[in-house]
Amino acid sequence: MKRIGNLYQKIISIENLQLADVVAQKNKSKQYGVQSHNSKSDANIWELHKMLRDKTYATSKYDVFKVYEPKEREVYRLPYFPDRITHHAIMNVLEPIFVANFTADTYSCIKGRGIHKVLKNVKKALKDEINTVYCLKLDIKKFYPNIDHEILKQLLRKKFKDQDLLWLLDEIIDSAKGLPIGNYLSQYFANFYLSYFDHWIK
């Protein structure tokens, strides 16, 4: 498998950070963190660029709270600046690489593959035809909290060789136990973590 390099400079470029800022703000303009950032957005973007360039960036302290619907779970929330901008900056560059690694039946959080497409494809797969006999339903108990950091890092190193990028991803991965529900990156890390298993199952 060919490993991918030379991505970090694209991620930390001023242009990409500005784009990430715009994308991250969508439907969130009234949030306090967004409004606070917007009062000095240019200075913040330059400061974030410098932190990432000099590798002084560190994940901020999480605000952790519980939700009870559809089931009880802990949700982690990071400040808009610098963390949520950083996550979007990473995904601006890595999203197509991650998605290309997933199976066609990976749906969670993937653009153009929402709940309606899942329903349509499940109905098609379960159509009563000759040799359609079984349906196997699986669930991984407490999947996000129990993801093994070292395994995830090994898988990322199979895909990427850019050491600066791997430093940043490691920093974010190690910022909490498992993968924090609520982090934008966690959704893609979780899909990536299972993608090789998904291909094997198929």
Your description of this structure?
With 202 residues, this protein is mainly alpha-helical. Helices cover 54% and strands 5% of the residues. It has nine helices and two strands; from the N terminus they run H-H-H-H-E-E-H-H-H-H-H. It has helices at 8-12, 14-24, 32-38, 41-54, 80-101, 115-125, 149-159, 163-173, 184-201, and strands spanning 63-67, 73-77. A two-stranded antiparallel sheet has the order 1-2. Strand 1 and strand 2 form a beta hairpin. Helix 2 (14-24) crosses helix 4. The chain is globular. The two termini are 19 Å apart.
Short description:
This protein has helices spanning 8-12, 14-24, 32-38, 41-54, 80-101, 115-125, 149-159, 163-173, 184-201, and strands at 63-67, 73-77. By secondary structure, the protein is mainly alpha-helical.
Fraction of residues in β-strands: under 5%
Percentage of residues in helical conformation: 40-55%
Helix and strand sequence: HHHHEEHHHHH
The beta-strand count equals: 2
Largest sheet: 2 strands, antiparallel
Key traits:
single chain, 202 residues, mainly alpha, two-stranded antiparallel sheet
